[in-house]
Amino acid sequence: MEKARSYVGLFIITPDKEDVDEVTGSIKSVISENSGDITKENMVGKKKLAYPIKKKAEGVYYEISFNAAPESIANMTRQFRINTDLLRSLIDKSE
Predict the structure, then answer these.
(1) Is the distance from CB of 85 to CB of 23 less than 8 angstroms?
(2) 35 against 7, higher pLDDT
(3) N or C terminus of the chain with fewer C-beta within 10 Å?
(4) How far apart are CA 57 and CA 7, in angstroms?
């Protein structure tokens, strides 16, 4: 297993989800299950999307910074794609 690297995840949560904390909790649990260590999180809030995604014009943006092994990122990405409460997710390497 390689040394853990820093990553930043940006998630767009569906706006009609009433309990956003439940969705952010599931994001955190996916990261923790894959041996990730959360360093910082930021709830950006509801914003208008540039174009509709899954017939939604708005989304709730959530940003999280974490440390994880590079080989665990593929599994996390797969689990985030399965989550129907997420419109989009992006994980990028942080400097």
Answers:
(1) yes
(2) 7
(3) C
(4) 28
